[in-house]
């Protein structure tokens, strides 16, 4: 997910993150099964550097700029991202991701 700032949509998806669900379930009965939720990785364009270190969902290196790095994802959500902050290599990676989707089941 690429966002300029944390929006309501970001907060909602952040609440579905599997890793956070596992952490919250420690010490009490888990309400979710292992196949529920999502593995969320986030790029917040306007976040301060402290936030990156505190939130495990934030990609520490920013948006992947290589096609191989994006291939691990099933979905990329562009929220209120600032398009001017996306470098041409990032935009090309996104175009390749959309034009050459992974085979189903991968």
Task: Describe the protein's topology.
Elements: E1 2-3, H1 8-15, H2 18-25, E2 43-44, H3 49-54, H4 67-70, H5 88-99
Which percent range fits the helix content?
A: 25-40%
> How would a crystallographer describe the biggest sheet?
2 strands, parallel
Report the end-to-end length measured between terminal Cα atoms.
20 Å
Average of pLDDT: 76
Beta-strand portion reads under 5%
Class based on secondary structure composition and strand pairing: mainly alpha
* Strand order, sheet with most strands: 1-2
Residue runs with pLDDT of under 50 for 5 or more positions: none
What integer value in Å does the Rg equal?
15 Å
How many β-strands, per DSSP? Answer: 2
**So how many helices?**
5
H-E order: EHHEHHH
What is the molecular shape? Answer: globular
What does this protein structure show overall?
The chain is built from five helices and two strands; from the N terminus they run E-H-H-E-H-H-H. It is mainly alpha-helical and 106 residues long. The longest helix is centred in the C-terminal third of the chain and has 12 residues. It is globular. It starts with a strand and ends in a 7-residue tail after the last helix.
């Amino acid at each position: 997910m690429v966002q300029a700032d944390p929006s309501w949509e970001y907060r909602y998806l952040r609440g579905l993150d599997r890793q956070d669900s596992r952490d919250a379930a420690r010490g009490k009965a888990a309400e979710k099964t292992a196949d529920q939720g999502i593995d969320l990785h986030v790029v917040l364009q306007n976040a301060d550097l402290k936030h990156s270190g505190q939130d495990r969902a934030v990609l520490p290196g920013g948006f992947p700029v290589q096609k191989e790095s994006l291939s691990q994802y099933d979905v990329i959500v562009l929220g209120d991202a600032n398009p001017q902050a996306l470098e041409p290599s990032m935009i090309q990676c996104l175009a390749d991701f959309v034009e050459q989707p992974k085979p189903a089941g991968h």
